[in-house]
Amino acid sequence: MEQILSILHGLKPAMLMVVVQVVFAGVNVLYKLAENDGMSSKVMVSYRFIFASAVMIPLALIVERKRPKLTWTVLLQAFFCGLLGGSLSQNLYIVSMTLTSATFVSAMTNLIPGITFIVAVTIGLEKVGFGTMAGKAKVLGTLIGIGGAMLLTFYKGVQINTGSVHVDLVHHQHHGASSSYSSHPSSAHHLWGALLALGSCISYALWLNVQAKMGEKYPCYYSSTALTCIMAAIQSTVFALCLEKDWSQWKLGWNVRLLTVAFAGILGSGLMFSLVAWCVRLKV
Predict the structure, then answer these.
(1) Where is the EamA domain (predicted)?
(2) pLDDT tens digits for range 217-229
């Protein structure tokens, strides 16, 4: 019995990461629905981290009352976590989804483990270990991920007609240029979308490594997530205010826009960032 419990405890990070991916899949669907409703991607990212901050700040204050003193090093790491894992990666991700498709961008995220492994080896957080099965599996997985991403980007096969199930969540409402890109993606848009998706993956992979370093100095999962979300909210809001001139984009109603930013913020950032931070700390 103890052996079974030990095995389950060792599998806990992997099982939690599966939960993370399920939630992220829901975020992708809602992103697409909000985009088709005409919502600005920059405003979407800003609201996402505002909602995440609103949830994580009181949670951190209640749960982690005894936490280490904040230092400038931790604040700097939180700034880069907010930038790499929040504002930058999410803005690149959504624009890439606009230029390609949710399926393509989701498939491209398979590059994240490989890029994370390469960065971790480079900065000394991980050892390759060619002589072990685990080391060989990591190298092989990295090569397969890179090969798959290249295949998705450059190979265009025949279209497969799977029929129709007559389910239309967006009711054919396409607003603005962003929807026309995703409805009729050209080769140039597809290539740009692939490059932006790659940039998002690199940014996310860098965040995981910075998060590992931050967890060593500040092992408070809710507090570190709150700091990351605050930094991301400030960065993405400033970015959106500078580039989005249509003030009506900031208006939220009881519609898919509110559902998207609330779900993405509370679950996709707040809860999931805490789980990722915990898993990273456990596996480092």
Answers:
(1) 14-152
(2) 888 888 988 999 9
